[in-house]
Amino acid sequence: MAKLDVETSFIEKLAELLQRTGLTEIEINQGTTRVRVARQVQMAPMDVTAPVYMQAPAHQAAAPAAAPAEPAPPAGPDASHPGVVKSPMVGTVYLAPEPGAPPYAGVGSEVKEGQTLLIIEAMKVMNAIRAPRAGRVARVFVENAAPVEFGEPLLVLE
Fold this sequence. Notes:
By secondary structure, the protein is mostly beta strands. The chain contains 1 helix and 10 strands; from the N terminus they run αββββββββββ. Helices cover about 10% and strands about 30% of the residues. The strands form 3 sheets. A 4-stranded antiparallel sheet has the order 3-10-8-5, with no helix packed on it. β6 (about 115-120) and β7 form a beta hairpin.
């Protein structure tokens, strides 16, 4: 097993970033080196003396007979494409810096490595998602102001 050569000051800076932003986890991959810093979130104790109210589900009528089967829609985004850029977090994606502004990058846009492709808002923090390499945006899988999940394909760079 190879020795991991990581500066402790780098890890301390990542831990400070977690604390400052309220994020619970940061993962950095560079070549074959992978650094993941995570923290546990302390939940406030529940007030067990507060009453809990539940509502019974409304009666539902029987479902109508199913219509004849139609061909299935094409599968979701092709996550196996080598140029796919995936969401590093759960949040809301924004394709432009503000409403009415042109998007950071659309289909056909030429982008440089490190250029902002879109932003993801997570816990009231705007996180720029940057191009991992130079290329042309071939496909965008998400819509503006849509929720995204961790690992969800966002777009393809060719």
